[in-house]
Amino acid sequence: MTTFSFIIPTYNRVAFIKQTIESILQCCKNKTNYEILIIDNNSTDNTAHVVRPLLENPLVRYILETRQGVAHARNRGIIEAKNDILIYLDDDIDLDAHYFEVCNIVFTDPSKDIVGGKVLPFNTEVPEWLPKKYHYLVSVLDLGNEPENTSMLMGANYALRKTLAERIGWYNTELGRKGTSLMAGEENDYFNRSKALGYPLFYEPKLIVYHKIDNKLNKVYVYNHAKMNGKAEGILDYKYAKLKFSYKIAKSVFMIALYYIYGSYAIGIRERTWFKINQLYSLGYLSVAKDKLFI
Q1: What is the residue-averaged pLDDT of the chain?
Q2: How far apart are CA 86 and CA 39, in angstroms?
Q3: Of 214, 236, 266, which closes a domain?
Q4: Domain coverage including residue 34
Q5: If we measure between CA atoms, which residue out of 225, 222, 221, 245 comes closest to residue 233?
Q6: Contact between residue 187 and residue 97 where contact means Cβ atoms under 8 Å apart
Q7: For 277-295, what is the mean pLDDT?
Q8: Measuring CA to CA, which residue among 223, 219, 232 is closest to residue 287?
Q9: Which H helix or E strand runs over 62?
Q10: How many domains does the chain have?
Q11: What is the CATH number of the domain that holds 17?
């Protein structure tokens, strides 16, 4: 029997973490081939107290990871997990009722090593001003209804064999959120390293989570996240793709100029948003060039 470890990194999400764990428990009702690891990334709120009653269930464990950063929490999950399949979920999601069943079926196929699915908004809609291309900035992913190999998955909802995680290695702790910072990129780096080893990403549309994203549906959050994404990609390109890094420096300068010449005056709200996101992404990317090349 295949066994599963749900890994939930969390930081100061006391309003959501209990609901997330209860959703997993409900989805896995009457099953015993799983465990839930709550990886508390040094929370300063009441997280430990709120989850304590859930620990009466022997399938739920609480682990304090004091090294700040979601990458450290993801790595701790690899260390602590006892089971065959690692399922990484955000701390503010509800599982679709069939999630565990679908995950179990997918991993009966030995050719599937790393799999993700839909991340849909919970009881809300993505604002009209945000182009669909950038829905990922509010942690939404919907690649359609056909299972297929893919170039991208989302950190809020993916699973992989523990044997593959051990082969890929640790998440890059230079990347990813640290406390309240919206720094990103640790999961994309991990996915890229998986593909480089010959393990493609697979998208299963029936593997669905519902994400509580009301706090993200504003331009301040989206624009900050775009800038941090640019910074994360700059760090990765500088490390792994120097030629690409040079090209994207030039592209970033061009996109910033284009924003001021045209984008900031665009009539359509989606068009203006598109240009603003690209301007801020470019500023984040160039901040890496400044740090690496000029200081």
Answers
A1: 95
A2: 13
A3: 214
A4: 4-214
A5: 245
A6: no
A7: 89
A8: 232
A9: strand 60-64
A10: 2
A11: 3.90.550.10
pLDDT over 70 (residue 294): no
Q: Reduced to 3 DSSP states, what percent helix, strand and coil does the chain have, rounded to the nearest 5?
A: 45, 20, 35
Q: Judging by DSSP bridges, how do beta strands 114-121 and 157-161 pair with one another?
A: antiparallel
Of residues 6, 16, 14, the one with CA closest to residue 80: 6
Those residues whose C-beta lies under 8 Å from the C-beta of residue 223, and which sit 6 or more positions away, are: 276, 277, 280
Say if residue 230 is in the same domain as residue 143: no
Q: Is the dihedral of CA 43, 44, 47, 48 positive or negative?
A: positive
Task: Determine the average pLDDT of the residues in 142-168.
Answer: 97
pTM value?
A: 0.94
Residues 144 and 69 in one domain: yes
Contacts 24+ apart (CB under 8 A), 14-20: 14/43, 14/45, 14/46, 14/47, 14/50, 16/91, 16/92, 16/212, 17/47, 17/50, 17/51, 17/91, 17/92, 18/50, 18/51, 18/54, 19/94, 20/89, 20/90, 20/91, 20/92, 20/93, 20/94
Q: What pairing do the DSSP bridges indicate for beta strands 201-211 and 114-121?
A: parallel
State which of 159, 185, 214 marks the end of a domain: 214
Does one domain contain both 205 and 240? no
Q: For residue 125, count CB atoms less than 10 angstroms from its CB and return exposed for 0-12, middle for 13-18, buried for 19 or more.
A: exposed
The answer to whether 61 touches 37, Cβ cutoff 8 Å, is yes
> 69: alpha, beta or left, given left = phi > 0 and alpha = psi -120 to 50?
left
- Give per-residue burial for 108-120: e unless 16+ CB within 10 Å, then b: eeeebbbbbbbbb
User: For residue 109, which of 2, 221, 193 has the smallest C-alpha distance?
Assistant: 2
How far does the chain reach from its first CA to its final CA, in angstroms?
54
pLDDT digits (tens, 9 = 90+) for 70-105: 999 999 999 999 999 999 999 999 999 999 999 999
Closest to 132 (Cα-Cα) out of 144, 122, 123: 144
